[in-house]
Design goal:
It is a single chain. The protein has 3 helices and no strands. Helices cover 94% and strands 0% of the residues. Helix 1 packs antiparallel against helix 2. The chain is mainly alpha-helical.
């Protein structure tokens, strides 16, 4: 009879160990599923952050840089107007605006090219994005 109890006790211990291993495996699999959910959330946050940063850079290239060029042209107009009033020659204003527009456009191209090269090692990437952005915006208007 004592052999039967010892054998049953050993079987019971073996069964308890097997049950514990199965329970731990199920917990590990459940935890792995939770880690997958956390990983998916972090990946979505990463992609969302990249999209937001890309839109900030794109809007800066589309809006901020041209506004700075127009402000430079406006400052040139203001100084040319003062000089034209002193010399009583209005042609100075037109030449200053013309030269200011050309210089502003060239500076815009240079600055956007430098920013594009610094970010992507390609000077045309931002220009492609600007073109797609503007055509997409125009398509939404129609």
């Amino acid at each position: 009879m004592s052999n039967f109890i010892i054998k049953n006790n050993a079987i019971f211990k073996l069964g308890a160990v097997f049950f514990a291993i199965c329970f731990l495996q199920l917990n590990i699999l459940n935890a792995a599923d939770q880690f997958n959910e956390a990983t998916n959330i972090l990946k979505q946050a990463h992609e969302s952050g990249q999209t937001t940063l890309g839109m900030i850079i794109l809007w800066g290239a589309v809006i901020a840089f041209p506004v700075m060029a127009f402000l430079g042209m406006f400052a040139g107009y203001k100084f040319a107007k003062q000089k034209a009033d002193q010399e009583k020659d209005n042609k100075i204003i037109y030449w200053a605006l013309f030269i200011g527009a050309i210089v502003g456009f060239v500076l815009y191209i240079l600055i956007v090219s430098l920013v594009s090269y610094a970010l992507t090692n390609d000077t045309g990437t931002i220009f492609d994005s600007i073109s797609k952005f503007i055509t997409g915006s125009l398509n939404k208007v129609n």
